[in-house]
Amino acid sequence: MIYASRFLRYAEDAMQGPDVLLLQEKLIEEGYRIAASGSYDRSTAQAVTRLQQALNLPADGIAGPEIWNTLSLGGERTAAVKAPLAGRPSILINLGKRRLTFTIDGKSTIYPVAIGKRSTPSPLGNWVIVQKAMNPGGPFGVRWMRLSVPWGGYGIHGTNNPKSIGRAVSHGCIRLHNKDVIKIYDLTPIGTPVNIVGKVYTGRILQEGSSGADVKQLQRDLKKLGYYKSSIDGAFGPKTTQAVKAFQSANGLAGDGVVGPYTYFALEKAKDIANKSYEP
Predict the structure, then answer these.
(1) Is 157 a catalytic residue?
(2) How many domains does the chain have?
(3) Contact status, residue 181 vs residue 157, Cβ threshold 8 Å
(4) Is residue 127 left, alpha or beta, with left meaning phi > 0 and alpha meaning psi from -120 to 50?
(5) d(Cα 230, Cα 212) in Å, to the nearest integer?
(6) Phi-psi sector, 7: left (phi>0), alpha (psi -120 to 50), beta
(7) Average pLDDT by consecutive 10-residue portion of the chain (280 residues)?
């Protein structure tokens, strides 16, 4: 599976947030003349398009993991993670239990969290906090702390959807109740280690002859996107193969009818656009 946080793109209802602001700041460092507004405007999309052209990538103006990696937006990698100093905190996120354990001075406090859904999982590994922001607003809630994940704008943040806490619904970010993220924000300096543990479902390879719930979901996705016209039966037959090939060809992929990491990734991107999904 190719991981990605939310796909930053130009839309009538402009995407906004600290991840957009960071992208703009990095594009400015690269020499692109745009405003660091925190709003994904037309000029930002045009700058991303020019960068994609320079990298021989599909030039659609949508910032995905290739752009994050190219601009080194992740900050420090795991090499920067060390055992916390005395008096400094550490954060453990258990995806299976959907909880965050905040430890400082030998005392631990547990908070419920929302985590990434199966198609956009939270990134396992050892990271550090590399950026903080007060009151980012909207789906980011009242506080934002960015993780050093190099392939996307992942973070620990509040939410404007408290009912999502305890569920696997995000685009990979870790959501806390606003009251909880406020409690730990001031106690969490830049460089705080964050360990994310658990299991991540990456999706099996699907092809003609496959069957099951994941094939049903594939058929639903392809039907919603206009590529599949038959019944949702969970059986990967010739009509599903034909729909997959058509989707692959329309998205610049090898039209082999096999659903692997790149096709899963393209499907998630297409669904986000079709559903107008802006949540982190």
Answers:
(1) yes
(2) 3
(3) yes
(4) beta
(5) 16
(6) beta
(7) 80 91 93 95 97 92 89 50 64 98 96 94 94 93 94 93 96 97 96 94 90 95 96 97 97 94 92 89
Please give the C-alpha separations between residue 112 and each of 42, 98, 115, 157, 192, in angstroms, as whole numbers. 37, 6, 10, 12, 19
What is the pTM (predicted TM-score) of this model?
0.84
> Do residues 182 and 247 share a domain?
no
Report the C-alpha gap between 174 and 159 in whole angstroms.
Answer: 10
Looking up residue 87, the CATH number of its domain turns out to be 2.40.440.10
Query: What is the predicted pLDDT for the residue at 263?
Result: 94
Q: What is the pLDDT of residue 150?
A: 85
Q: How many helices (H) and strands (E) does the chain have?
A: 7, 10
**Structural domain for 122, as ranges:** 78-197
Q: Distance (Å, rounded) from C-alpha 36 to C-alpha 23? A: 9
Residue 212: predicted pLDDT? 95
The last residue of one of the domains, among 197, 232, 249, is 197
Smallest CA-to-CA distance from 280 within 43, 10, 105, 20 is with 20
DSSP secondary structure string for all residues of 104-162: ETTEEEEEE-BEE-TTSPPPPEEEEEEEEEE---GGGTTEEEEE--TTS--EEE--S-G
As a whole number of angstroms, the distance between CA 100 and CA 138 comes to 22
User: Is 107 found in the same domain as 83?
Assistant: yes
Catalytic pick among 22, 173, 222, 258: 173
Our measurement of the distance from residue 180's CA atom to the centroid of its chain's CA atoms, rounded to an integer in Å, reads 22
Would residue 173 show up in a list of annotated catalytic residues for this protein?
yes
The catalytic position among 6, 98, 157, 269 is 157
Distance CA 90, CA 82 (A): 10
The CA-based angle 167-171-172, given to 5 degrees, is 80
